[in-house]
User: Fold this.
Amino acid sequence: MKKSILLLPLFFLAALSNAAAQSDGIMRFFNQYAEDERFTVVYIAPKLFSMVAKIETDDEDWNKVREIVKDLGGLRVLTADSIGDGLAMYKDALKRVPTSEYSELLTVRDGDENVRIWTKDTNDGTIIEELLLLVGSANEFTLLSFTGKINLDKISALSKTLDIEGVQHLDKVKSKTKN
Amino acid sequence: MHSIFHGATRATDTSRRQAFVRSLLIAGLFLASNMLQAQDYGIYWKYKDYDGAVAVSVPGWVTQIGSVFIDGKENRQVIRKIRRFRVLVFQEKGSPITTKDFERFNRKAKRRHLDELVTVRDGKTRVQIYGKMRRNSIRKVVVFFSTPDDGAGLVSIHGKFKIDDINKAIKSAKKETKKGEKPLVPEVVKIPVKKV
Assistant:
């Protein structure tokens, strides 16, 4: 009995570290290639989104962007458009996605191009707190992660706003939510 | 007897006062040196005399005078809020700023609430923007850049830019744009990853 009580904190520690390792899998993948010159890396901090949300103009497009980004937490993009092993990288990244934490939103395979989008909901499932996009083809690879309070209808509009390779796939979210 | 004691007390008082003034001076010097380094946490001062470096430090009063030549009341107001503006550029030999310097900068930045806002790296080109915000105003912006062709360096701006002032400047810039002209402020802000 005493032994099992002693082992209890150890069990909790192991469970906690396992959970952290799961969510850190994608982050580690991101960090692994962050300094690789074949890739383009973009990181936008939540503070910048909140700053942008405070800037008001009469421009309608700007106001649309403000409306979208005001609830966003952060954005990380890792993309490459001329690498030889895009598919291998896609498969490697796929393995690191903790499927127990994320729910698959969309899968598209068109020729050699693969697109997958996952979402991570809050416990009650009402708010999407992370959106993960993975694109892989023979020469291309994109990993994109949005955090914050995400509205799927609004996020698809960002595909037109952000001039980042691979972001155009966010447009697929709109068509998916309409179906 | 009394006068001897009295004299001794006066002597201790004077030495105490001297010690107090000395410690005050040391604290003042320490604070001043900290304030000088505070903008980019010492990187500017470490490398400003480096061979091939172009270093410019513009105090607030110069920007106040310079703002007279700026068009538009709103733009002038934003320029007048600059308290110090520093540029350090290494044109030929690339940046001598080491990883250790960046690590030290990041540590100090975190401690002093200077947050990393944007990082873009495309090949050998890298841009990092840090910002400090307090009570609806931007207090500090530090930009590090490094390109294979155009050199590397940093730009740091210290001031008190209220969001309202920035809003006004953006609105006036949009008004000034005539029909058919390229707008001063882009219709929608884009992150030009491939054009950095």
Q: What stands out?
A: Chain B has a mean pLDDT of 76. The beta strands of chain B are 53-59, 82-90, 115-122, 125-134, 137-147, 151-162.
